[in-house]
Specification:
Blueprint (H helix, E strand, L loop, with lengths): L2 E8 H9 L11 H14 L3 H30 L18 E4 L5 E4 L2 H10 L6 E10 L2 E10 L3
Antiparallel strand pairs: 1-5, 2-3, 4-5
Length: 151
C-alpha cells in the first residue's frame, strides 16, 4: 500500500451547491460522469446529487491518497514533501470516477496525470488505484487505496 484516502460529503448541502444559480460545481465533473450519474439516478429512482456527491468524495479521496503516499515517502526518505497539486490547482474534471459495465467504480486518469502519479511516487512500476463509493441517507463516502501493481 502506498496511500489511503477517505472523504465524506453531505448530500443535501452538495445538492444545494449543485442547484445554486451561477454554481460552477457541475464544471468539476466530466460529461461522462454527469451522464452516468443521471442514468444511475434514473435507474435507482433517486436524485442525481447523491451520485455526484459520491463521485466528488472519490475525487477528494484520490487526492488525499496521493498526498498521503507522497508524505509517507518524504518522511521515509527524509526529504521535503511537495504535493502534486493544491486544492485550487487540482484538475477536478480530468479525474473521472466512472462505473464499468458491471457498475463497479474506477478512477480514470488522463495519460499526463498517470505519468505525474508514477513520477511523483518515484517508481517506474505501475500503480493500481482502488476505489469504493457508498451513500446512505444524507451522507456519501469514498475510500481510495493506491498500491504498487506488481503485475
Amino acid at each position: 500500500m502506498l496511500g489511503l484516502g477517505h472523504d465524506v460529503v453531505d448530500v443535501r448541502a452538495f445538492g444545494e451547491q449543485l442547484g445554486s444559480p451561477g454554481s460552477r460545481m457541475r464544471g468539476l465533473f466530466s460529461a461522462r460522469e454527469l451522464r452516468q450519474s443521471a442514468q444511475r439516478a434514473k435507474v435507482k429512482n433517486d436524485g442525481e446529487a447523491v451520485h455526484l456527491a459520491a463521485r466528488w468524495a472519490g475525487k477528494e479521496a484520490f487526492l488525499k491518497a496521493w498526498c498521503e503516499a507522497l508524505s509517507f515517502m518524504a518522511e521515509r526518505d527524509d526529504v521535503s514533501f511537495h504535493p502534486p497539486y493544491s486544492i485550487d490547482t487540482f484538475p477536478w474534471p480530468c479525474v473521472e470516477i466512472l462505473d464499468d459495465s458491471h457498475g463497479v467504480p474506477h478512477v480514470v486518469l488522463p495519460l499526463e496525470m498517470r505519468r505525474k502519479l508514477s513520477e511523483s511516487l518515484g517508481s517506474p512500476q505501475s500503480h493500481a488505484i482502488h476505489i469504493s463509493l457508498s451513500h446512505d441517507g444524507s451522507v456519501a463516502s469514498a475510500v481510495v487505496h493506491i498500491t504498487t501493481d506488481r503485475g
